[in-house]
Amino acid sequence: MKNYLFLLCFLCQSTFAQLPSPENISRHVYQLASDKMQGRGTGSKENQKAAKYVKKQFKKYGLQPKGTDGFYQPFTAKIRRVVVPDSLRKTNNVIGFLDNGAEHTIVIGAHFDHLGLGRQGSSKAEKPEGQIHNGADDNASGVAGLLELARYFARNNVNEPYNFLFIAFGAEELGLLGSRHFVNNPTLSLDKINFMSNMDMIGRYDASRGVGIGGFGTSGEWPEIFKEVKSDTRFFTDKAGSGGSDHGSFYAKNIPVLFFHTGGHDDYHKPTDDPEKIDYKAAAGILGIQIHLIENAMKLPKLKFTPVL
Ligand SMILES: [Zn+2]
Predict the structure, then answer these.
(1) What InterPro entries does the record tag this protein with (predicted)?
(2) Separation of CA 126 from chain center
């Protein structure tokens, strides 16, 4: 009996205790979107600090470095939307690998950069220059999701039939530059990627809308994978494989994608996109849906890509 209880307890821990939690998501968002991160503008030392934060968590979860310089994949981003004297900015993708000894790999991603002090274009504030654009929803929320999924899959004591590549992209706000750099300079052969799942702005859940899940048309297998997925968190699907965020770079290389997004709001690309406005419980629910989808997809062979017409 004692052994049985021990086993039961062990099963509970491995199956449930590691699920993404609102507390962990909140901790990451408050770190990444704090004023000391100065809006994580591409090329700033705070942008590098945010990259270092992600790297530290990847290391803690036991992921293997899969960049070109340890966990980092450095590249130079160019600012084109506005004229600035220092238009070339150094930044990184941060890449961690969970090796399950499988042939194919699932990519999970989220961009970690934001608009800094509003001098790189695309701010919607009236006088953006010098104001910290914290980017709690865009996209500290997605990075927190990325970290929680990395923790979940690395520590659930399950050897999944696919490997995982976790990527925090740089310079998304300058035109998907980090993800494009990755797909053009992949650190793992693109034909070994099963699908890519992206999170960009998962913090402003509105129950009357639900979370949007894009990419539904990028593989004929998604309908079957979505079939049994039920959640208290409402969601709807959208066929599009490109548009708006880093999954588009993978779609352009004929890789099936998913894209999680809770929608636009009044604080979008303004200095008021702050951590206290995030719905952490709903964000955890969204990660639950994503885990369910990924686990369903892992029961199938590598998905076949279909273009969305
Ligand atoms: Zn974003």
Answers:
(1) M28_fam, Peptidase_M28
(2) 29
Instruction: For the chain, give every domain's residue range.
Output: 35-297
**Stretch 16-31: mean pLDDT, rounded?**
91
Supply 41's token pair: 């503008």
Phi, psi of 19 (to 5 degrees): -60, 150
Interstrand relation of 88-98 and 163-169 (parallel, antiparallel or unpaired): antiparallel
Task: Compute the distance from residue 95 Cα to the ligand 1 centre, in Å.
Answer: 18
Could you report the per-residue pLDDT of 43-72, keeping only the tens digit for each?
999 999 999 999 999 999 999 999 999 999
Question: pLDDT tens for residues 87-128?
Answer: 999 999 999 999 999 999 999 999 999 999 999 889 999 999
Q: 228 falls in which pLDDT band (50, 70, 90)?
A: confident
What is the spatial distance between Cα 92 and Cα 171, in angstroms, rounded to a whole number?
A: 8
The pair of three-digit structure tokens given for residue 283, joined into one six-digit string: 């964000």
| CATH T-level assignment (fold) for domain 35-297 | Aminopeptidase (3.40.630)
Q: Taken in order 128, 129, 131, 134, is the CA torsion positive or negative?
A: positive
- The answer to which of 7-16, 19-28, 279-288, 300-309 has the lowest mean pLDDT is 7-16
Q: How far is the CA of 193 from the centre of ligand 1 (A)?
A: 23
Amino acid, res. 80? R
What distance in angstroms lies between residue 14's CA and the mean position of ligand 1's atoms?
32
Centre of ligand 1 to C-alpha 204, Å, is 13
